[in-house]
Amino acid sequence: MPYITTSDGVEIYYIEQGEGQPIILSHGWPLNSDAWALELKLFADAGYRAIAHDRRGHGRSSKTYAGNDMDHYAADLNDLVEALDLHDLILIGHSTGGGEVVRYAARYGKDRVAKVITAGAVPPLMLNTPDNPEGAPIAVFDAIRDGVISDRSQYYKDLAIPFFGGNRAGVVVSQGQIDDFWRQGMEVSVAAAYDCIAAFSETDFTEDLKAIDAPFFIAHGDDDQIVPIAAAAEKAIALVKNGTLKVYKGRPHGIYGDYQKELDQDILDFIRA
């Protein structure tokens, strides 16, 4: 299996399919690159070099105790980009992965990044603060931490339901999808899963968003129960220089079913434009 080793000695697993302009896909919490399995084929079939990696602590990458924060995630991504010598790069990030690609693009990607796409992404800030009243209170994230520590296996099974909107009338989420969410969640180390909660909820990406010059497509479901749109996409679009926001009516946080089909086509249209 292909790996690169980061500057601080962490092994990062990645998968790539296809040839052409490179696309890097960054996954959400508590998942790994398998969350992008369909997109890897779809974008490769469309003539792109599609690459997805497991964040440190997740999936097949090193099960790290330290460095489970956005600065390290972005630095790891930079190490991957440099190791593969990628240019004219398209970045796609979902949820926590949206934060990762935003920080990478702002800090490292000026001469390499062509376009940025986020879906259900955490920027600019999830946590409620005096300057961010739309954010969620710390108790919400403490409850996630408690779920990871007390019974993570059951917690991931329970979380999959609102993640994909399965608690909404008329929405059906397959048992297979729930099982796969659980499987990926169980592959992240407890330390990495726990620390990543602070990384995705307490990191302020305001200045990162302002620093990105590349064309930026922001996608968000207006029924996202995990990263509510009011503290995320609706604020992010006002901060980026060259952004387009598309709100997906009634869509959840997880990229699945009809939402996945619509979003993937919109991404292809955006990167081809």
Write the layout of secondary structure elements.
Blueprint: E1 3-5, E2 11-17, E3 21-26, H1 37-45, E4 48-53, H2 70-84, E5 89-94, H3 96-107, E6 113-119, H4 138-163, H5 175-186, H6 190-202, H7 206-211, E7 216-221, H8 233-236, E8 243-248, H9 257-272
Parallel strand pairs: 3-4, 3-5, 5-6, 6-7, 7-8
Antiparallel strand pairs: 1-2, 2-4
Helix pairs in contact: 2-3, 4-5, 4-6
What can you see in these coordinates?
The protein is an alpha/beta fold. The protein has one domain (3-272): Rossmann fold (3-Layer(aba) Sandwich), CATH 3.40.50. It is built from nine helices and eight strands. The model has no long low-confidence stretch (mean pLDDT 98).
Could you write a compact summary of the structure shown?
The protein is α/β, with parallel strands linked by helices. It has one domain (3-272): Rossmann fold (3-Layer(aba) Sandwich). The chain has helices spanning 37-45, 70-84, 96-107, 138-163, 175-186, 190-202, 206-211, 233-236, 257-272, and strands at 3-5, 11-17, 21-26, 48-53, 89-94, 113-119, 216-221, 243-248.
